Structure prediction request, 346 residues.
Amino acid sequence: MRIRAGTDRGDLGRVTVSRRVRCSPQLASLALVLSFTVEAATQKVESIPVPGTKAFPESITSTSDGVLFVGRLGEGGIMRVKPHTAESTVFIQPGASGSRSILGVFADEASSTLWACSNDLSALGGSAAGSDKWSALKSFDLNTGDAKHSFSPPGSHAFCNDITVDAKGSVYVTDSANPTILKLSAGATTFDVFAQDSAFSPPQSGGAGLDGIAFGSDGNLYVTTYTAGELLRVEVKDDGRAGRITKLSGNHHLHFPDALRTLGTNSFLLIEGSGRLGRVVIRGDAFAVTPIHDGFVTPTSVAWIGTTAWVSEGQLAFFFDPSNRNLSPSLPFRIYAVPLRKEDSK
Prediction:
């Protein structure tokens, strides 16, 4: 890895990283491939530190009172952050309910539930505090942090990545190791396959498949594929079943699209692992991306509170790339506040 950078995060120079990852045998050697280039940031933004020398923040979600929840890939557990005071505490302890590395998190206030995707990445140096050997969807009380349930995705090689919830309380999960979107209906104890399609698969050369997931204002489900760089729409029929799956064409190729968060009328906030936060607008079977802020080092997720987008910066090359094991990420890890213009939040 070659890095040319200043000492201040706002002065990050051009960074080029390549990584090939082989996860634990329990995950059937899921390979994630990432090659990205981060351009220098031209605007400094407010930030809040995420404690932990190996935190590697992954997903981020928020509640209506402005509280943020941040899943930690490296150390496990979930942080609770109050942006107004910059106070952060460990809300879900590493290993709680058998959890390992935390990826997707989703705050469902209607059911007072904090949902989290847990995966065993201990072979890569991830959390070894929990007892789970497989991927799982965990639920915790949103107010107290008490464990509720643990749900196992079908198959022995699933990789629970990101989460969304519909108006009826059903939970939808992207499986990055398989071309499937999973659904846990409200009150159910087992998953159903909501949608399955070869368009969700990673490239034959390897990498990760499905990643971000969110409902659009049209009631349909939208997902991203990380390595292939695609944005797709899954029609949701009146009876709740999946309909037509459409690969949308864009005004530019997406570079490792990750988290997707609903904004306004068929618009989303989108994180690209190459370093960008952007606004995506859907027009028919096409989409247009407008950059909001560039220069993050492997951003992983975003949460929207009022006129501010909070971006988690994962620095994941230091976690996944074995050649970087003797190198250290920039500490502390941070989540960044990006002001949204009026036109960004429509």
